[in-house]
Amino acid sequence: MQKVTAQQIRSSFINASRSEAAKLNLPRNFESIEWDSLEFLGWRDEKMPQRGYLVLPQNGKPMGIMLRAPEGASGKKRAVLCELCRDVFSKDDVYLWVAKRAGQSGKDGNTVGTLICAEFGCSVNVRKEPPVNEINPDPAAVVLQQIAGLEVRTARFVQRVRNGSKR
């Protein structure tokens, strides 16, 4: 992912009002982010932990969506698979993050959701090399496939928010 500025992030949201985007809190480590190792920038708002943000490159520009975690999500412990990274070995919590749809559909209260790592660690998860075995003789190739899969699934979810389509 290319480096983006705070202003680019704030103006990238397709399902948030200007005032909501202006009030968002950037990640604590924003100035030291290693952009080359991210397929998307995802974070939880430090002051509003039920709120999350996901920003990814689309046609050379950042596109962001505002998300909401379910109430009381931090107390529930279930083993579920993140739909974006699909890391079967991750011990991270996974939440059903919900986003208002873009445009009038979102203003009418329509939402779309998917299971995503609670702390948006998907880019780290897909870069973990599996052990060499008969199924995975080339771990580096597996990592590249996992990265490509993450990019496709993330873009598909954002497109569902944007278009209002079912899949």
Description of the molecule:
This protein is of the alpha+beta class. Helix content is 28%, strand content 20%. It contains five helices and five strands, in the order ααββββαβαα. The chain is globular, with a radius of gyration of 16 Å. Strands 1-2-3 form a three-stranded antiparallel sheet. A two-stranded antiparallel ribbon has the order 4-5. The longest helix has 25 residues, at 139-163. The chain has helices spanning 6-10, 18-23, 103-107, 122-126, 139-163; strands at 41-44, 51-58, 61-68, 94-100, 111-117.
Percentage of residues assigned to helices: 25-40%
By secondary-structure content and strand pairing, the structural class works out as: alpha+beta
User: Count of helical segments?
Assistant: 5
The fraction of residues in strands falls at 15-25%
Q: What sort of overall outline do the alpha carbons produce when their principal axes are compared?
A: globular
Mean pLDDT: 91
Number of strands: 5
